[in-house]
Amino acid sequence: MKTTAREFTGWHMLAIITAFFAVVIAVNLTMAISSMRTWTGLVVDNSYVESQRFNDKQHTIAAQRAAGWVVETSHADGSIVFSARDASGNTLMLDNVSAFVRRPVGGHDDTTLALEFRGNDYVGALDLAPGVWDITITTAPTALGMIEYESRVTVE
Predict the structure, then answer these.
(1) Which range marks the domain in which residue 29 is found?
(2) 17, 38, 44, 75 - which has most CB atoms within 10 Å?
(3) Read out DSSP for the chain?
(4) Per-residue pLDDT tens digits for 42-51
């Protein structure tokens, strides 16, 4: 049995280059379609409006810190726990305390819940799946402005 060597021609090279670029284009299209169907990348609805609110938020936070307010958020035993203390360590009496809980990336599993005053803290029942979560606490306006406190918790 005798085999003959086949000659590599320009047509072969054209087929290889065409196949290569077809794979690259197919992968790019797949990734583009996948990214469009998942997270949009939007963090706020209107970035211009949020940029205008930024300085106001910073002044409010500075006033609250200057007054000695200390706020903390945690997740323990299936509950979101928010504590707010004044400079003397007394609990701040707040109205309309709520928590917005979300994954840092993804735009899914977002939820908002009202926190109730229990003991010395504001608590809301919420079981979180393992992973990283961002929690934003908001309250009704106080003498030093509305509290808007953001924290990140990791659930094991």
Answers:
(1) 8-37
(2) 75
(3) ----PPP--HHHHHHHHHHHHHHHHHHHHHHHHHHHHS----SSS-HHHHHHHHHHHHHHHHHHHHTT-EEEEEEETTEEEEEEE-TTSPBP--SS-EEEEE-SSSS-S-EEEE-EEETTEEEEE----SEEEEEEEE-S--TT---EEEEEEEE-
(4) 778 898 888 8
Residue 1 has a pLDDT of 66
Half-sphere exposure of 71 (CA within 13 A, CB side): 23
In a domain, 139, yes or no: yes
User: Is 55 inside any structural domain?
Assistant: yes
pTM confidence score: 0.70
Phi/psi of residue 44, each to 5°? -130, 155
What pLDDT, in 10s, does the model give residues 17-35? 999 999 999 999 999 998 8
Q: Which residue type occupies 129?
A: A
**Residue 1 corresponds to which tokens in the numbers above?**
């049995």
